[in-house]
Amino acid sequence: MSAFSDALTRVPPLLAQHVLVSMAALLLGILIAVPLAFACARRPGLSRVALGCASLVQTIPALALLALFYPVLLSLSGLVGGGIPALGFLPSLLALTLYALLPILRNGVTGLLGLDPAVLQAADAVGMTRWQKLRLVEAPLVAPILAAGIRTAAVWTIGAATLSTTVGQPSLGDMIFAGLQTQAWALVLAGCFAAAALALAVDALIGLIERGLATRRKALWIGGLVALVLGCALATQPLWSRGGEPRREVVIGAKNFSEQYILARLIGDRLTQAGYSVSYRDGLGSAVAFEATAGGRVDVYVDYAGTLWTTAMHRHDSPPRGVMLDALKDWAATRDVAMLGPLGFENAYAFAMKAPSAQRLGVRSLADLARVAPGLKLGSDLEFLDRPEWAAVRDAYGLRFASMTPYSPTFMYRALSSGRADVISAFSSDGRIAADRLTVLSDPKRAIPGYDAVLLVAKDRAGDAGFVEALRPMLNHIPVEAMREANYRVDRDDAAKESPEAAARWLAKRVGL
Amino acid sequence: MPEPMIALENLSRRYGTVAAVDGVSLSIARGSFVALVGASGSGKSTLLRTINRLETPDSGRVRVDDRDVTAEPPHAWRRRIGYVFQQHGLFPHMTVAANVAIGLRLAGRAVGDRVGEVLDLVELPRDLADRMPDALSGGQRQRVAIARALATEPPILLLDEALGALDPVTRDAVAGRLVALHQRLGLTTLLVTHDMAEALLTADRVLVMERGRIVADASPAQLVAGEGGHAAQALMAVPRHQAERLAALAR
């Protein structure tokens, strides 16, 4: 229970962001859908098109919709010469707004078409103008039905907003994604609990407004509205108190696995000691993390040389380590990102098998693996099979597996131990390799590039001497054994499991930082 | 004969190939109570609704007090004509008082004690003013609809089957009240009805419509005397026959 109450302390700043993005999307959705509903009620053709589009949007999974806005905004930004952020608040706002449209639009159109024709005729007969008819008759009569649609939209939006974490917008999803990755169930539970409580509270308040409108009790609906606005203001309070200070808070990015969480906390602890206030952006996708840093919305994070080399720089060769790091540093500088240097360990893709089966099949290298692969099942992480590294390895060794299944990293190891996978695309710094006594296959053709962990800093932070000095001692100071053990402390699922914060403190002590 | 107040000139209105109103010309004198009688689909409602521009004629003109009704925007024109139809059409989200005062509010006129006055006119207790329409009986609702139409003191009152949804007792009471108001307020009233008896007992001039044309134009006394032509007398047969049977029962 104390893990749960610990986790709850992370809620307020994330709740603030969650409320901000979901309520902004709801408001924008109302501003678009309500006038559109009135226009649709007068033109059946428009109604068919608008409702069709809104329904179509609804069939796209929210996660995919959020992801789609990244390339769309990116190319749009390119078209107008930059300046449109493709990550964070804007794509989340747009995707969630689209999501909110359907229930509002549908209720609005249904409500308007269901109005008593005699009442509408009476409105004309007493001499109302079009606008008066809308304001005095149609709007008040359709308001309770619209409110019911807005209520549905609010609950959907709050739920879907947890997914905006993946495009770099902080939300309660941060806790859920991070908890899922590190198997910190208290964190998942606290995140879900907070999101559900928010949805229920908003649902109840809009329900109050709806009932007030339906029964024409002004006090009730105005009271509900005031409570809703006050609640939102209160929930977003952590955001505006920060507004006064000039950008002093540092945003530390982390991708979605334990090592990233631990290193982010290590960086955060050092910066806190140096007098910075920090916040964390956890669970970022690979591409998202770099773009967010280039855009200055993340100040610092750890990435891996090979990842950037293949996916961001689109290089297919595997030069020696030093050459690669130099080239990477130069390239990053052109994208407004400063590479401070390597941390001292690699986290490469490493094919791993259970030791007994590797022995039985006589597999010690990728070349050996190619021989027996057609009879084996490959388990990979979620992105590996789509990455150029996989293509490089596959082509270099002629690898062909009986089946290939992507898992989230935690479940990938489980798949191996349970026999659902025979080979996995592990990570060389993963503590579970040693703990599970896995055999890591060698790469005699050097098909997989080097994966030095490197510290990347946004341009406008790179000039801050205090900032850079706080981080510099980390460079070349973290051996792979220490990183592995720190990772294992978070990844293990027995009683000795630790939080990323605790593992970061342990790692600092272990390497003498 | 007094100068015509409402003049329809060669008025036509078609729905597809069907002519609802087919070249009608008609003068209605100030202060008269005219009943338009006919079967369903004879075009009587359509004809009535061209006067307050709820219908736009395909050809022909409507003039009131020598002015073309299209001379000003429809909403401004309608504010000066009282209109009551079968499904009362009260605004369900407004109190009786707000419903009655809506015309004054739209015209930006002071409401004052007007709501109470018109409720008196239609013989409704003033304390109904704060009720919502769904808390009234059918007859009360129709009286409120009439009060709403009269609140702005329009010179013309159009009644489109206004009594059609009421039970016979209420209907008789409201019809009697309408005749009294017509005289007291000096209105020019047009009543559309399919009930010849109702027309005879309220109006001073009865027009019979058939397939978009006016086929008879007579006073109630002429109609009772067997004049007015074949179509009018066909409609007269029903009340006449009923009256004979009632008389036979009394013997």
What's the arrangement of secondary structure elements?
The complex is a heterodimer of chains A (513) and B (251).
Chain A: H1 2-8, H2 11-42, H3 44-59, H4 62-79, H5 89-113, H6 117-125, H7 130-160, H8 173-182, H9 185-214, H10 218-235, H11 237-243, E1 250-255, H12 258-273, E2 278-284, H13 286-294, E3 300-304, H14 305-312, H15 321-334, E4 337-346, E5 349-354, H16 355-361, H17 366-372, E6 377-380, H18 388-397, E7 403-406, H19 409-418, E8 423-427, H20 431-435, E9 438-440, E10 452-458, H21 459-462, H22 465-471, H23 480-491, H24 500-511
Chain B: E1 4-15, E2 18-29, E3 33-37, H1 44-51, E4 59-64, E5 67-68, H2 74-78, E6 81-85, H3 96-106, H4 114-121, H5 138-150, E7 156-160, H6 168-185, E8 188-193, H7 196-202, E9 205-210, E10 213-218, H8 220-224, H9 230-250
Helix pairs in contact in B: 3-5, 4-5
Index terms:
heterodimer; A: alpha/beta; D-Maltodextrin-Binding Protein, domain 2; 3 domains; 5-stranded mixed beta sheet; 3-stranded antiparallel beta sheet; B: 251 residues; Rossmann fold; 6-stranded mixed beta sheet; 4-stranded antiparallel beta sheet; 9 helices; 10 strands
Task: Summarize, please.
Chain A has 513 residues and is α/β, with parallel strands linked by helices.
Radius of gyration of chain A: 27 Å
Structural class of chain A: alpha/beta
CATH topology of the largest domain in chain A: MetI-like fold
The level 1 CATH classification of the domain at 1-75 and 190-251 in chain B is Alpha Beta
| Lateral arrangement of strands in the main beta sheet of chain B | 6-7-8-3-9-10
Count of helical regions of chain A? 24
